[in-house]
């Protein structure tokens, strides 16, 4: 698989079509498949945080979620083909689950959000099975409490549902910590962190209109809706400057 490194963090040079094909193939294997969908903020974070960096390095597929990584890839001289956003990949996997009758489990969000999201997904994709849902506000590996009673109960609930695909919406990097700590204990084949996507599927938050999506400006739409995010988002120009400065030290390879 062709990979690039941005700030030392490996990203797969996959298109959306390839990302879906690899996941579909993984569903027919026995091996578990962990998908990470970092944006520039998470790559920046992983550049500083060894634990997150190792998780991304070990993941089975790392797709570039965000225009910052596409620009960053041009700076390091190995342009990514396209942006593969987490929510679009999730939507394509839901489509596939519908066509093939696979089951999904949704975990994350405030009380009721995952259930509402599941309800709306089922309305759209009648043939897919919602194996179960769980909120994301419990003590667990994502809050620095691995093996807590609450985490054990959440995993028991998931295991009883025995899903094919598990979408974990605890925000990044919480969801990556949760999946990494528990993947061997959880039933399921594909595990994917999906950030705030359940808030979108539940109807709590609107996704940006197509025009923003096509221009790679979803972050701008989100900023208009949630202006308190400004401090975090202003990290994008800094990220690009950082990539530019570190560019010569990045080792890019194909394997
Ligand atoms: N979330 C959760 N459990 C937590 C923290 C967050 O389920 O302990 C959910 C939250 O409700 C939201 C999603 O994770 O649906 C993303 O949260 P947030 O926007 O705070 O994180 P970000 O995506 O900005 O990192």
Automatic annotation (TrEMBL):
CDD domains to which the protein is assigned, alphabetical: Glyco_transf_WecG_TagA (cd06533)
Pfam entry (one): Glyco_tran_WecG
GO molecular function, one term: N-acetylglucosaminyldiphosphoundecaprenol N-acetyl-beta-D-mannosaminyltransferase activity
The keyword Transcription regulation is annotated on this UniProt entry: no
InterPro entries the UniProt entry points to: TagA_TarA, WecG_TagA_CpsF
Main EC class the enzyme belongs to: transferase
Catalysed transformations (reactions): UDP-N-acetyl-alpha-D-mannosamine + N-acetyl-alpha-D-glucosaminyl-di-trans,octa-cis-undecaprenyl diphosphate = N-acetyl-beta-D-mannosaminyl-(1->4)-N-acetyl-alpha-D-glucosaminyl di-trans,octa-cis-undecaprenyl diphosphate + UDP + H(+)
Keywords: Cell wall biogenesis/degradation, Glycosyltransferase, Teichoic acid biosynthesis, Transferase
Signal sequence, start to end: none
EC number: 2.4.1.187
Pathway participation: Cell wall biogenesis; teichoic acid biosynthesis
Family membership noted in the UniProt record: Belongs to the glycosyltransferase 26 family. TagA/TarA subfamily.
Job description of the protein: Catalyzes the conversion of GlcNAc-PP-undecaprenol into ManNAc-GlcNAc-PP-undecaprenol, the first committed lipid intermediate in the de novo synthesis of teichoic acid.
NCBIfam families assigned: wecG_tagA_cpsF
Protein name: N-acetylglucosaminyldiphosphoundecaprenol N-acetyl-beta-D-mannosaminyltransferase
Source organism (scientific name): Acetoanaerobium pronyense
